[in-house]
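Below is one record:
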Amino acid sequence: MSNVVISGYYGSRNAGDEAMLAAMVEVLSDLNPKVNITVISASPEDTRQRHGVNAVGWLDLRGIFAAVRRADLLISGGGSLLQNVTSRRSLYYYLLIIWLAELLGTPVMLYAQGIGPINGGFARWFMGYIGNRVRMITVRDRGSLKELKALGITRPHIEPTADPVHAIHQVDRSIGSQILQRHGISVGEKPLVCISVREWCGMSHYKEVVARAADRIVEEFSARVVFLPMQYPEDVRTAEQVAALAKHDMMVLPEEYNTSQLLSIVGNMELLISIRLHALIFAGVMGVPMIGISYDPKVDRFLESVGEQPVGTLENVDFDKLMEQIRAKWNDKAGFSQQNEQLFDDLRRLAMHNAELAYSVIRKV
C-alpha cells in the first residue's frame, strides 16, 4: 500500500480547490485502489466526509510530522500555492511543509502547480532553494515554466501538464436541474446563463459592467441569469451586490455545493461568464462555452491553453467588448463547444499524467 500526503488549500470551502482535490483523489485511486491518502486540511472532518480520505489539521504539527514521516510521497498541490500575491505567509507555510518532508527523507512532488508571481528577493531565493530539492515538478501552464526558469529551478524533472480538475469525469445534468428547480428555475423553459464572480481588492467597476451585461442578456436573449458561488459564503455576498445593481431579477444560488453538484449546474447552462478559474474549467469539462474576466495570471494562462483570451481584467473590462464576446459565443454555441471539447480531451490526458508521474516517483524510491 502506498501512503501519500497531499498539502494544499483544502478544507476552506473553496469549490475550485475542493474540485482539484476530488480529481486528484479520483485519479490516484483509479491507478492504485489501495493508495492511502492523507490530506493536510483547514477542516479535517469536512475533508474526511467530503472526499473519503484521512485528514490532519493544517496547524496540527505533530499530526503533520507523523503523516509526512510515514509517507511514500508528499504531493504539494494542485493550485496556485507557490505565490505571494494573495497571501505573503501562505507561501512560506507550503514551502516549510516541503522542507519538513525533505528533512524526513520523504520525496516531494509539486503537482500541477501554478507557479508565481513571487515577489521579494528572499521569497524568490527560498522558493528556488526548496524547488531545486524536490523530486518532480509538474505545472499546469507554460507561464509557470517561465517562472520556474526565472527562479533558477532546474534540478528536478519538470513537465507541463494541466490542472487536476481536467481529469474529472462529466456528471449527470439532472442533479443540477433538480437544484435549479428547487430555486424556481425550470431547465428548458428559458436559456440559462451562469455568472461566477468574486470579491477582489474592493473593486467595483467590474460589478457594474457585469450587472449591465446581465440585464442585456435577459433583454436580448430572453434568458435567465444564474449567479453561482464557488467560495461559500463570500461569493454569495458578492453576487448579491452585483445582482442588486441590475434592473431585472437575477437568481443568486444561496447554498454551498460539492464538486458534482457544481459541475451538473454548469452543465445545464448555455454560456458561462466567470472570474473564478475553476468555474471556467467546469464549463470546459461539461462542454459549455465560456468567457473569462481576469483577476490573476492563472486565469490568463488557462484561457491561453484552450485558445481563448480574457475579455478584460477587473479593472478595465469594457461593457461593449463583453457583449461582443457574449454575442459571438451565443451565435455559435455548438462551434465553441466542439472546439473546447477537442482541447479539453488533450488537457484531460495531461491532467491524468500528473498521477502517473506521482507513482513513478514512488517506484524510484
Observations:
- The mean pLDDT is 95.
- The radius of gyration is 20 Å.
